[in-house]
C-alpha cells in the first residue's frame, strides 16, 4: 500500500515542479508554448499507446468507448461552465481576472491525474511491481501541465500560495488515488479497470485539443507541430521499451 501511495505521489510530483518553475522563474510565452507543445505530444501518446490500447486489448471496445466519451464529456462540461463565467478570452498572453485558460488546464489535469494514478495502483496489484512506463509517462506529461497552468493562473491573478496549494492537493489526490486503486479495485473486474484507463484518455484528448494545442500554436507558431510530434515519438519509444 505504501508503494502504491509513493509511486502515485512521484508521478504527480512533476506537477508541483512545473508549477514552481512557472511561478518563480521567468518563462517567456514562446518557451512555455514549446514546452506545452512537447507535452501535448507526450499526452497524446500516453493516451493512445498506453491507456486506450491496453483498455481495448483487455476489455474489448464497448466499455473503453463509454469510459473514453465520459472522460471527454466531463472535461468539456467543466470548460463550458468556465467559459460561461467569463473565460471566453483564455489566451495566456492576455491578463484578465476572468481568463481561465490556466484553470481549464488545471481541471483537465485533475480529471486525468486521478484515474491515471488509480492505474498505477492497479498495475502494482496485478504485477506485484510498479509499471515504470506508466509512472514515467505520467511524470513527463504532468510537468508541462503544471508549468503552463500555473503561468496561466498567475496571469489571471491567482496568488503563488494559492497555486502551490492547488497543486499540492492534486499531488495528494494522485497519491491517494494510487493507494485506493491498490486497495479497492477488484482486478477481476475487467470492465471497470479498462473504463478507468479510457476515461483518463478521454479527459486527456479533450484537454489538449481545447486548451494546450491552440495556446501553444498561438504563442509558438508552426514549429509547435514538430515539437508535438517529438513528444508523441517520445511516448512511442517509452511504450516500445516498456
Automatic annotation (TrEMBL):
<dbReference type="Pfam" id="PF02535">
    <property type="entry name" value="Zip"/>
</dbReference>
<keyword id="KW-0812">Transmembrane</keyword>
<feature type="transmembrane region" description="Helical">
    <location>
        <begin position="191"/>
        <end position="211"/>
    </location>
</feature>
<comment type="similarity">
    <text>Belongs to the ZIP transporter (TC 2.A.5) family.</text>
</comment>
<protein>
    <submittedName>
        <fullName>ZIP family metal transporter</fullName>
    </submittedName>
</protein>
<keyword id="KW-0472">Membrane</keyword>
<feature type="transmembrane region" description="Helical">
    <location>
        <begin position="6"/>
        <end position="24"/>
    </location>
</feature>
<feature type="transmembrane region" description="Helical">
    <location>
        <begin position="31"/>
        <end position="49"/>
    </location>
</feature>
<feature type="transmembrane region" description="Helical">
    <location>
        <begin position="103"/>
        <end position="124"/>
    </location>
</feature>
<dbReference type="InterPro" id="IPR003689">
    <property type="entry name" value="ZIP"/>
</dbReference>
<feature type="transmembrane region" description="Helical">
    <location>
        <begin position="130"/>
        <end position="151"/>
    </location>
</feature>
<keyword id="KW-0862">Zinc</keyword>
<keyword id="KW-1133">Transmembrane helix</keyword>
<keyword id="KW-1003">Cell membrane</keyword>
<feature type="transmembrane region" description="Helical">
    <location>
        <begin position="223"/>
        <end position="241"/>
    </location>
</feature>
<feature type="transmembrane region" description="Helical">
    <location>
        <begin position="61"/>
        <end position="82"/>
    </location>
</feature>
<feature type="transmembrane region" description="Helical">
    <location>
        <begin position="163"/>
        <end position="185"/>
    </location>
</feature>
Amino acid at each position: 500500500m505504501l508503494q502504491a501511495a509513493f509511486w502515485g505521489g512521484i508521478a504527480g510530483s512533476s506537477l508541483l515542479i512545473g508549477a514552481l518553475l512557472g511561478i518563480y522563474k521567468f518563462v517567456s510565452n514562446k518557451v512555455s508554448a514549446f514546452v506545452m507543445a512537447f507535452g501535448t505530444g507526450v499526452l497524446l501518446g500516453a493516451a493512445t499507446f498506453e491507456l486506450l490500447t491496453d483498455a481495448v486489448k483487455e476489455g474489448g471496445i464497448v466499455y473503453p468507448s463509454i469510459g473514453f466519451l465520459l472522460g471527454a464529456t466531463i472535461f468539456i462540461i467543466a470548460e463550458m461552465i468556465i467559459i460561461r463565467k467569463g473565460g471566453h478570452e483564455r489566451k495566456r498572453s492576455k491578463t484578465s481576472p476572468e481568463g481561465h485558460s490556466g484553470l481549464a488546464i488545471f481541471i483537465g489535469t485533475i480529471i486525468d491525474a486521478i484515474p491515471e494514478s488509480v492505474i498505477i495502483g492497479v498495475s502494482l496489484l496485478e504485477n506485484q511491481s510498479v509499471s515504470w512506463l506508466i509512472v514515467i509517462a505520467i511524470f513527463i506529461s504532468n510537468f508541462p501541465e503544471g508549468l503552463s497552468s500555473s503561468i496561466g493562473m498567475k496571469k489571471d491573478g491567482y496568488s503563488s500560495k494559492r497555486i502551490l496549494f492547488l497543486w499540492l492537493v492534486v499531488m495528494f489526490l494522485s497519491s491517494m488515488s494510487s493507494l485506493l486503486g491498490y486497495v479497492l479495485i477488484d482486478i477481476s473486474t475487467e470492465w471497470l479497470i479498462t473504463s478507468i484507463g479510457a476515461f483518463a484518455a478521454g479527459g486527456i484528448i479533450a484537454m489538449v485539443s481545447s486548451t494546450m494545442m491552440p495556446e501553444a500554436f498561438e504563442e509558438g507558431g508552426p514549429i509547435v507541430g514538430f515539437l508535438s510530434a517529438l513528444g508523441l515519438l517520445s511516448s512511442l519509444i517509452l511504450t516500445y521499451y516498456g
